[in-house]
Every structure is written in C-alpha cells, then in structure tokens.
Amino acid sequence: MDNLTDLPNSDGFFGEYGGKFVPETLMHALKELDEIYARLKNDPKFVEEIDQDLVQFVGRPSPLYFAKRLTDHYSGPQIWLKREDLNHTGAHKINNTVGQILLAKAMGKKRIIAETGAGQHGVATATVAARLGLECHIYMGAADVERQSLNVYRIKLLGAKVHAVDSGTATLKDALNEAMRDWVTNIEDTYYIIGSVTGPHPYPMIVRDFNAIVGRELRKQSIEQFMQYPDAIVACVGGGSNAMGIFYPFLEEPNVALIGVEAAGSGLASGKHAAPLNDGEPGILHGAKSYLMQDKNGQVVDTHSISAGLDYPGVGPEHSNLKDSGRANYIAVDDVEVLSSFHLVTKLEGIMPALETAHAFAALEHIAKNYKSNQHIVINVSGRGDKDINTVATMDGISLD
Amino acid sequence: MEYLLTRLDEKILSLKKVSKKAFVAYLVAGDPDLDSTLELMHGFVDAGVDILEIGVPFSDPIAEGPIIQAAHDRALKNNTSLNSIFHLVESFREKNTDTPIILMGYMNTFLANAEDLKEAHQSGTDAVLIVDIPGESNLEDLGIKNKNLASISLIAPTTSEDRVSKICNSSSGFIYYVTLRGVTGSSHLNINEAESNINHIRSQTSLPVFAGFGIKTPDDAFNLSKISDGIVIGSSLVQMIHEQSDQKEFKNIYNYLHEMAEAISR
User: Fold this and answer.
1) Looking at this predicted complex, what is its ipTM?
2) Is A190 helix (H, G, I), strand (E, B) or coil?
3) Inter-chain CB proximity A284 and B107 less than 8 Å
4) Which among B62, B109, B159 has the least Cβ separation from residue A181?
5) What is the pTM of this model?
6) Concatenated DSSP letters for B192-216?
7) Domain A15-53+93-207 top-level CATH class
8) A298:B108 CB<8 A
C-alpha cells in the first residue's frame, strides 16, 4: 500500500475516494491547474513568496498555547490550543487563499470566484483578491447570508460582490453548485478558489497542502514546548480543511491519534445533522467521491447544524480514506453540547471560539477521560467566534437590537 | 459473432439513409408529473422528434441553468426516482418500440441504482448520458454501462484535442457536442467555433456528432444542423412545459417542435 502522505494518485484518488466527477467543460481547466501547481509547488520563488505572505500578511506562525484552566476543568490530559483564530481575518481559511491567489495570478486569471458557508472563506478570498486588485464574486446560501450577516458585510467592504443563492437548501452545498455553474460559464478568465478539501482533483490536494503549514508548525512547537508530539489532535470537520491541514504532517506518526469532530446537529438519531462520516454512505457530489448524506435513490438530503461552516452533506475525500483505513477517527457532537462548550471555553480561557471550532472543544467531554495527566491533546482552534455572536444570542434567548 | 444493432443504431442508420438530421428533444421526467411526461413523450414523437432524452432529476444538478434546475426540484417533490422512470419507459414502449430513449442525469443517482441498470434495457431504455464524468471514464467497471446499455459522451469547446479521440472511443451511438461554455439554457452560441470543433471530432470518429446547449429558435436549429448530424433542444421545452403545467394543454409545444423539425430539414 502507498504511504498515506503520497496520496492522491495521479488521477486524484485517495484509495477509492476523490477523482474528477465534473462536466466536460471543466476538465481542461482542472488539468491546467494540476500542471501549474505541480510546477510551482517546488519553485523556490513561489514558495518564498507564500512563506513571506504567511509571516507578514497572515501573522504566522500561530502560537501553541497551554489552556491551563481547561486542563484543570477536565483534570485529565494537558490541553493545548493551536491558535488559528489569531490569523489575519480570524480563521485558518486565509492559509489556503494566500496560496491559491498566487496560482490564479500565475495562470493570468482576472476574475476570482468562491463559495462560502460561515463566510470565513468568503472574507479570506475577498481579502486576497482586494490585495491584488482582482474582481471577486462570493456565492453564499441565502440562509447563511442571514445567519452570518457580519461576514457578509465584511466581504462587501473588501470590494467583493456577494451572490445570495436561493436554490435547493440555500446553504453551503447550493453555494458550491452555483459557483461551479459560474465557473463552467466563465472558464476562460475565472479562477475558482475552493475553500475546503472538497471538489474535484486537484483541489483537495492543493487546499490540504496550503493548510498543512498548521501541522508542520505544530510538529516543531510541540517538541519545543512539551518535548514530544501530541498524543491526540482534535479538529472539527465540515469539508475538513482545518483538520486535514493539522492532520497531514502527522499521518505517518502512528502514536499521534487523529480525531475529527462532525456536526451532529439535533442529534445523529434525529437525522437532522451534518455528519456524513458518522452516518452517511459513499457517493458523488461536487466533483468527488466521498462519504455523503443521501437517500436510497442517490439524492442528497438536507443537513442541519448550528454552525454554517459545518452545514454540508459531504466531506473531503481524503477524510473518507482516513476513516476507512482507520488512521483517523471521526465522532460527532450535537448543537447543545457545542453551545455549552462555547460558553465554557469563553469563560475559562478568555477565548471565544467559532461555533465550528466549538465542536472540537465539545469533543473533550467525550475523550478527555481516556487520557492521563502526562499526555497532551492539541485542539485546532480553527477560527474565532465574533461572527457567531448573533446566533449564540438567539440560542440563549437574548435580543441584541 | 453476430452484432445486433441497437434501437439507437437503427434509428441513426435510417436517418442517414434518407440524409436527415436527427432531432433530439429533452424533458425532465416527473415534471409536472409522470403521466404528463408519458403524454409529452408520445406528443414529441408525433411532432417530429427522432430521439427522446429523459432528464433524471438530481438534487444538485451543477450543469443546469435555472430553468432545468427548477424542473429537477419539481420532479423530486413528486418523488420521481430512477425506478419510476424505468416504469415510465415501459409504459411508453407499449405504444412505441422504435424511438430510442436516453436517460440523462448525474452520476450519483445512477451509482445508487447500479443494480437496476443491469436490467434497464428490459424496460426499453437504450442509453445513458451522464453529465458529471470525464468522457473517457470506463462506465462498465462502475456498473453503469453494459452490453445492452450504451453510453453517450459529451465533448465541450474546452476539450483538448488529445482527449477527443479517447472520448470518441468510449462513446457509443453518437457524440454530444456542447456548443457553448456554460450551463444548459445559456445564450453564448458560437457557430464558427462549433463548426471547427465538430469537424475535428468527425476526423476522429465515424460516430455522428449532435449539437446541443443554447439552441432556442428555428434559426439556431437550422444553423447548427448544417454543421452537425443532429441537434438537441431542452431548456426551451422545459420552460414551455412548466408554463402549461396547470392546464396541461401542450399543443403550442408540439407546434414549436414542428417548426424546429422543419428548420433542420430545410
């Protein structure tokens, strides 16, 4: 068997997952992207330009922080936080857009499009497009435009146009559908910055590689700060880019447990959730084969999560392969657990996590007891929670008007 | 070994014999309901349609423009499934045994029903056309294509020359040339580009090349039929069906099809 780090293969498959299941019009653009990325990723000038942006524009490296009061609260393992919430624009999403915008520039594309759920990828894309003076269009489900209004306004301030998508369930999956349709129509001059490790090959690989800076920093920081690699790394999974970025540099370290946390929404048993790895079947959506929430006829079913960024029926194909191979474990936590975890972390640590990230924290309730006080768990704090204040207030029955 | 001509091969041969261009028409199964779809299928044939393309509704049809997307949504609200479409085709075959039927849809719907596809030809289904796969994919390995079920591949203006021959080799029946960069129902037809691309495809295969996407008027149909072996229309029909879905009076649609059929035999 191939090493997990050597995947995907040249056809874009991670085991049986991935591939390029797209309309014929897009095939050439994907091949072009694959070729230019293969050429540039080892080009010293390209690498240097990205590294410089990551340090000077994004603010990397992000700290590895010891969460003392959270550790005391669970009185089990030492809990450490990888602070992606401190990045410019407030989440890990900028790691990917900083890289992809340079690919767009190298390909001579003048127009940038992206989909967004929570709005973080929309903000991160509008930010890098503004910096290079490129026209930018962000597709966002109409339901998400409503619940993430703060980010919608940020995107507009950055000079991008927000297209509210009314079709289907009016959430992230429909935003992706509409972005794909835009790309099919404007293929010649448009670069599509996909925001997660989803979509057709080579996107799952490219987005993972640009986010893998998080895991590479953690390898170094964990040795420096606690003299060993973590015993477990925990990250939330919607499409799965923050998780893939922190997992990837540890795939060949068998003593490091990798735990992905999906959105159980109103509970796995209710069927109203967004946890395809826990309660889905392999299928094809948005260009790749992966676990998917679908009915017996192959129709994609409605999802539910308190968090717009995880409210997606699919998941990146590499996660599906990690699940089947047993290298990573995927659990799910529900909306109620997430909200109480949001409050706990905010009060104990003075860190207000995004609702997506709060899923990773909520996993501690289930797994902390399995670890001893000399062991180390790292939580990937994928983003900050300012954008979610309205949702949290509504859930708590408080009016901010 | 004896090679049996399929219904699709026979139709294409018989059209060729009289130097007639093929007229392919698309509609979404179950929009507004399956009984109407059956009535429309017979009506289409009476109005001059040679080959029927039945849209299999999918929750996330990324290659469709707003008109066909909405039709997919309506059909799904009526619980239209691939199995109910096989029954529809069976009913159609009670009165019509020579019009080829192609099921057009998205990979996930077909994969979820791969078992049933083994028997699909018994319902009278002749071919599948899957929108979201590379044309050179091996559909036999995936359990979609079999000796009784052909698969039609799409070639786009952006398809690179080296892939054209690979795609032609894995297609049967005909090649579907997508006339524009865009989703179904767009309006960026470029006849000159289509002509040179269709000529290139013809240099790579003996299969006929049909043109579709963005054909709305009899003039579009006439212009494209001159440079291809047939034309496909869809969005304009789906829109008209929707407009008539309350009174279910489809005469104006049949008149439109007549006009289009005449235009391509001009």
Assistant:
1) 0.93
2) strand
3) yes
4) B62
5) 0.96
6) HHHHHHHHHHHHH-SS-EEEESS--
7) alpha beta
8) yes
